[in-house]
Design a protein that fits this description.
Radius of gyration of chain B: 20 Å
Number of helices of chain B: 7
Number of strands of chain B: 9
Number of helices of chain A: 27
Largest sheet of chain B: 3 strands, mixed
Strand order of the largest sheet of chain A: 5-4-19-18-17-6-7
Order of helices and strands of chain B: EHEEHEEHEHEHHEHE
Oligomer: heterodimer
Structural class of chain A: alpha/beta
Strand order of the largest sheet of chain B: 8-1-9
Helix content of chain A: 25-40%
Helix content of chain B: 10-25%
Distance between the termini of chain B: 56 Å
Chain lengths: 857, 241
């Protein structure tokens, strides 16, 4: 089939107008006149700019990592003459292997986006606001870094280093260089991560039942049943590539049930859809637990049994705790007595809008599939006010059926052997110590913000509250701030609060690839390398029974004069601080020596490389090997790009969980201790804490998984529809809207449309509201509004309106915005979403907790 | 003799569109052009609703109406069954498009990759599309794939049609079509229909395959097996209401 071979034409049926007769016609009359009126434009016969024969295989597949979402797939990039041309899964990974989800390809349109910032810039318009053009002008790296160093030195000189703040969005595990060490050594407590706008509430249930503050992996190829609670793994987060690769086989052996008010991409590929009323997942979960117990379907080798073998779980009847002998769990009978005994499917049907028959049947099927039966808790049902308890309830089902840590069940991450960067302690001086002892700017740990990460009051972040705290100068003002790979002015609910907060910060620096909404408020923009193509870093991710540590590698030369956010830029700032007489940070960074040669870094690039080699030392140095894949040295590791763990050790944690009891806790002694700790800190009792934090539970109910009535913003009469937010399968978090492939193919999300941002209404609601497909509409919540297009679609629950997050950029680039700097393309859901919290986890609420009204525009 | 065919396993397909983007990438397709595409629609009434998805591409019909319609021989069958295009011979008459029952042929009414011809920057400190392409030393656009040039112009000129070639430029080097390699679900299986031991032959024998608009007699070489929608339903006789 080379050019010459391709002239061999196979006979095809003649339908009258053969080439010969056509050419005759051309000869007689000329091509253009022969076809006049047939076609608007003929090919013009000038030399092609392309067309020379080229053989396949011009490039090389080089490894790196995709951070389009938090799957963190190991990938390979096809590089031809120093250009990135294609992307695929890295076959060396045991997590995602050669599979690559669709969003990975979009990385190419990001790294080569003309709208990338290619040089440092400073604002020349002192006025800051969403409608104020910053009038950025290019400056040198020297000028940018000098200005930043001067501002930091000013804080040091005035003993107010705590007024420095670092905001972190997406990250690699090089993060601690800029996120932890730099604020500590300068002297600030204010390293504010994005974690609480991610899915911290998803970690709450697992922590307070089985002692793991972490996301989970699901053993899908060995399972018989999957309950998906607002999780959409074929579309968004986590291990999308892996689950896409496995799902066809999963369906051969497992029944999947999608619980979601919207017909999701995974619901489409599930046997059953339970279109639940938003915010009521906790009710469904406890009713399922009720059925599993009353039907005697719990997994006895894990949970235990009644002493005399008779099932005393009878609806409405309390049970004597002594009658049941538990094995690897704790508090089952207490849970039954406190919460479950009256929670029948009929009770849940009223609340959830599902039928009692379906609830009973699905619960029974799930129980019968024990222990290979997964209850998969996603962000939807838990990133809500009071979501912590819904998360516990849905996750606790895994405990009932013995799926925790078991074959075909829910697993934690495998062990890996990366190491922390050198400790900063020797470089933290008195000024820094004093500064970093101040309260953190997000107010975590206050009475109304327990943020009980890993059992400790105020250990978790309350990202979105930082905006209010900055505006109110409570606990103090922020004078100098740096943000990197974040866009809180777009990604945090109730965005206008961030506009105000960022405008108020006297000196704001943004390290970014694109001039985003956050950048719009910056005094200085520092252009960053793209994580997938231009940066040294590493990520840890798990799935398919393995964990991988996958490298971000500079597979191409940076396209522009850009440096890496987490390593090179802090080094360059450290150099500038040193030249101003404060060299602690630089001396600390110089202690990251190359493990191979013992050499200390002498420049930013060496620092980035040595830091990576240092952190991953035990993975690639055969003399330090502790487990998993073994390499001959750094060069081999770098060429493979990924280290894989040992296989998962099933059931190793049965009886050895990191809870107060060492067991899987249906009555959480661990949560009890955490809540009591927080109450004691504020000299009050747990009930008062729960009241302050807007939970309904009082007394013992606070320590068991239970249903909390959803807290909803907006009166039903004024705001008729509950809003359902979700993530597009082409979202690279909030960063892909400037890619044309994103816009062209937004209709890959069920119900969505290309080049559009549609809010989807059930036909019943559309009729009531007089809305038609294609109408330009305004959605209005109690705290904000946006403009988008209406679509009437059967895939949404009546009484709700569903719209994807991702569009609505008024900045970012020529494709993302309808008019750059002025008019958004579609609407940003976060303009609509009120700032509220699941306060026990510190999480921002995103789902099912507020109502909207609709106006035609 | 080799006769290439593709089997698409709809149970494995998750409708992610990875094939579509990968194809655009491999073949340097302009905005709005997709050689690999999909048909999707929603059926039913809440809560009994299904979203259905069928990946599509050129069917490489044995009796290809586009080939029969082409007045210049630009569209032709290769000996291994590919419906191939010789852009040099294409005069842009679009008879092939009118004849194709599947709507998988695209006409370039204007210059390809127009996005990358733009020489304006959004603001100071950013660049124009033309500038990025120049900065990385590429032809046409920064992530341009020159390997496509082996058998077709790397981008197809205005006034010509274009469509899927089963990645003939890759086949001849022993590589599978890029959509097949890129599908994360391995839902696309490619091979030789004339070889009874090939995976495509075996799958077609094992499952009753479906082909698009089979009644037209085009003999498509893209076969669909199994179902997009999983699950069962409760046994029933139905009833008379």
């Amino acid at each position: 089939m080379k050019k010459e071979a391709s002239t061999q034409v196979v006979e095809v049926p003649d339908r009258g107008s053969s080439r010969r007769s056509f050419l005759k016609l051309m000869g007689a009359t000329g091509a253009s006149s022969a076809l006049a009126g047939v076609m608007p434009k003929l090919k013009y016969f000038e030399p092609d700019q392309v067309g020379e024969a080229q053989s396949v295989g011009l490039g090389q597949w080089l490894p790196t990592t995709c951070q389009g979402c938090t799957s963190w797939c190991s990938v390979q990039v096809y590089v031809i003459d120093g250009r990135a041309v294609k992307v695929r899964g890295n076959p060396n990974s045991k997590v995602n292997g050669e599979a690559s989800c669709p969003r990975a390809h979009l990385g190419l349109q990001q790294v080569y986006d003309p709208d990338r910032v290619k040089t440092p810039m400073k604002r020349t318009n002192p006025k800051k606001g969403p409608g104020e053009d910053p009038q950025f002008v290019p400056i040198s790296w020297d000028e940018a870094l000098d200005t930043i160093a001067d501002k930091l030195m000013e804080l040091r000189d005035n003993n107010e280093t705590h007024k420095y703040m670092l905001m972190r969005g997406r990250y690699s595990y090089m993060r601690d260089i800029i996120y932890d060490r730099m604020p500590k050594i300068i002297g600030s407590p204010n390293n504010i991560s994005h974690s609480a706008i991610c899915a911290e509430a998803e970690k709450f249930g697992p922590y307070y039942t089985e002692g793991e503050w972490a996301y989970r992996q699901y053993d899908v190829l060995n399972t018989n049943y999957i309950l998906l609670w607002g999780a959409d793994p074929l579309s968004a987060n986590r291990q999308v590539s892996y689950y896409l690769s496995a799902w066809g086989d999963v369906l051969d052996r497992a029944k999947c049930v999608a619980i979601d008010p919207r017909l999701t991409a995974t619901a489409v590929k599930s046997a059953e859809w339970m279109p639940i009323r938003p915010g009521t997942d906790g009710a469904l979960a406890v009713a399922m637990a009720h059925v599993i117990l009353t039907e005697g379907l719990w997994y006895k080798p894990f949970v235990g049994d009644f002493v005399d073998g008779v099932n005393l779980f009878v609806p409405g009847k309390t049970v004597d705790e002594a009658a049941f002998q538990e094995v690897y769990t704790s508090g089952l009978v207490k849970w039954w007595n406190i919460e479950l005994k009256d929670k029948t499917p009929e009770w849940a049907a009223e609340i959830t809008g599902l039928s009692a028959e379906q609830i009973r049947r699905v619960a029974t099927e799930y129980g019968k599939a024990a222990p290979h039966a997964i209850s998969w808790v996603g962000g939807g049902p838990v990133m809500q006010p009071r979501g912590a308890y819904g998360c516990m309830a849905a996750h606790a089902l895994n405990g009932l059926v013995g799926a925790v840590d078991n074959v075909g069940g829910t697993l934690k991450a495998n062990k890996e052997y990366t190491q922390s960067f050198p400790a900063p302690d020797d470089y933290v001086d008195e000024i820094a110590k004093k500064g970093k002892s101040k309260e953190k700017i997000d107010q975590r740990g206050r009475k109304e913000f327990p943020a009980l990460k890993k059992g400790k009051s105020g250990k978790g972040v309350v990202t979105n509250n930082a905006a209010d705290a900055i505006v109110n100068e409570d606990p103090y003002e922020i004078k100098v701030a740096i943000g990197y790979m974040n866009n809180f002015a777009f990604s945090c609910p109730q965005t206008a609060r961030w506009y105000e907060a960022l405008a108020k910060i006297p000196f704001l620096v943004h390290i970014t690839t694109h001039a985003s909404e956050f950048s719009w408020f910056a005094d200085i923009i520092l252009p960053s390398t793209h994580h997938m193509f231009e940066k040294y870093g590493y990520l840890k991710a798990f799935g398919n029974g393995y964990r991988h540590v996958t490298l971000n590698l500079p597979v191409i030369e940076p396209v522009w004069d850009v440096y890496t956010d987490e390593t090179e830029i802090p080094w360059m700032i450290a150099e500038k601080l040193a030249s101003r007489g404060f060299d602690n940070l630089l001396r600390h960074y110089q202690s990251y020596v190359d493990p191979e040669t013992g050499a200390a870094p002498t420049n930013a690039e060496e620092f980035a490389l040595y830091a990576l080699k240092y952190a991953t030392h035990k993975l690639w140095d055969p003399a330090k090997h502790e487990g998993g894949d073994k390499f001959s040295g750094w060069e081999e590791f770098k060429s493979v790009g990924v280290w894989n763990s040992d296989p998962y050790p099933y059931r190793k944690r049965w009886g050895a969980m990191k809870t107060a009891t060492g067991k899987f806790e249906f009555y959480s002694e661990t949560l009890k201790a955490a809540l009591e700790g927080h109450a004691k800190k504020h000299s009050t009792d747990v009930d008062d804490i729960l009241k302050t934090c807007n939970y309904t539970a009082r007394g013992e109910l606070a320590f068991v998984p239970h249903f909390e009535e959803p807290l909803v913003h907006g009166d039903e009469d004024e705001y008729p529809l509950l809003f359902v937010d979700y993530k597009s399968r082409l979202n690279r978090e909030g960063r892909s809207a400037n890619c044309t492939w994103y816009q062209e193919l937004r209709d890959l999300d069920p119900g969505d449309e290309a080049w559009a941002d549609v809010a989807k209404f059930n036909p019943l609601d559309a009729e009531k509201l007089g809305i038609k497909t294609g109408d330009k509409i305004k959605l209005i919540s109690p705290t904000g509004e946006l403009t988008c297009t209406a679509k009437v679609w059967e895939g949404v629950r009546p009484g709700t309106v569903a719209k994807a997050y991702g569009q609505g950029h008024w900045s970012y680039g020529r494709v993302a915005a309808a008019e750059f700097g002025k008019t958004p393309r579609g609407g940003n859901n976060n303009d609509l979403i009120p700032a509220d919290y699941d306060r026990l986890s510190g999480s921002s609420a995103f789902y099912g907790f507020f109502r909207v009204k609709v106006e035609k525009v | 003799m080799t006769k290439y065919a593709m089997v698409i396993d709809l149970q494995r397909c998750a409708g992610c569109g990875g094939c579509i983007i990968a194809c655009k990438n491999e073949n340097n397709l302009s905005q709005g052009v997709s050689w690999a595409s999909k048909i999707s629609w929603t059926v039913g009434t809440f809560p009994n609703v299904r979203f259905t998805y069928i990946p599509t591409l050129c069917n490489h019909c044995q009796n290809a109406p586009c080939v029969a319609a082409c007045p210049t021989g630009a569209m032709y069958k290769t000996e291994n069954g590919i419906t191939m295009l010789d852009t040099d011979k294409c005069i842009g008459c679009r008879y092939c498009m009118a004849a194709c029952p599947y709507g998988v042929i695209h006409f370039n009414a204007t210059e390809s990759q127009a996005f990358w011809k733009d020489d304006t920057a959004l603001m100071a400190g950013t660049s124009s599309p033309v500038e990025v392409t120049a900065a990385v030393g590429a032809k046409v656009m920064p992530y341009y794939n020159p390997e496509r040039e082996a058998t077709l112009p790397g981008i197809r000129p205005a006034g010509t049609v274009e469509k899927c070639t089963f990645c003939d430029h890759r086949l001849e080097e022993g590589l599978l079509p890029y959509c097949v390699e890129a599908c994360p679900a391995q839902a696309r299986i490619f091979g030789d229909l004339d070889d009874p031991s090939s995976d495509v032959s075996k799958l077609i024998s094992r499952y009753q395959p479906m082909r698009l608009r089979e009644s037209l007699g085009t003999e498509p070489k893209v076969y669909y097996i199994r179902g997009f929608h999983p699950g069962s339903y409760k046994k029933t006789y139905g009833g008379l209401g």
